[in-house]
Amino acid sequence: EVQLQASGGGLVQPGGSLRLSCAASGFTFGDYAIGWFRQAPGKEREGVSCFVGGGGSTYYHDSVKGRFTISRDNAKNTVYLQMNNLTPEDTAVYYCATDLSRRFRCPGSTFGSSWYATRADFASWGQGTLVTVSS
Fold it and tell me: In angstroms, rounded to a whole number, what is the distance separating the alpha carbons of residues 64 and 45?
């Protein structure tokens, strides 16, 4: 059974940083992409960043490029999202997800290093972790 557990959310001031973690189990972690998503109140869930399984390719939504960094530790079955220079617009519940029908690629659409994905692109989800950016 695929299990994903996101953690690390909290309250941070504008300009601050947080690191989210996504611990995974129940599948061959290294083979599959892990995507980070967020959902702000009243908005659709949107893809933030994705790390391809099996290789080093990473992708970001344009709104977080240069501020967020995704990384993965295959030995720990964990993906991280380092978020710097946070703004109130980053306030959302953050989720991690994977999809075992898409080996060695990130579901969604990629254009260069840009990535766009919706909830429908991934099949397996963890519970979210709330990030609040406020002074």
Answer: 15
